[in-house]
Amino acid sequence: MKTKADILLIYTGGTIGMVKDAETGSLKAFNFDDLLQNIPELKLLEHTIDSVSFEKPIDSSNMRPAFWIKIAGMIEENYDRYDGFVVLHGSDTMSYTASALSFMFENLGKPIIFTGSQLPIGDLRTDAKENLVTSIQIAGLQEKGKPVITEVGLYFEYKLYRANRTTKINAEYFEAFASMNYPPLLESGVHLSVNRSLLWPSSEKGKMKVHKKLNDEIALIKVYPGMNRKVMEHLFSFMEVKGIILETYGTGNAPTDEWFVNLLSQAISRGVVVVNVTQCIGGSVNMGQYETSNQLKRIGVVSGKDITVEAAIAKLMYLLAKDLSPKVFKTIFETSLRGEMN
Question: In this predicted model, what pLDDT tens digit does every residue of 152-165 receive, in sequence order?
Answer without folding.
Answer: 999 999 999 999 99
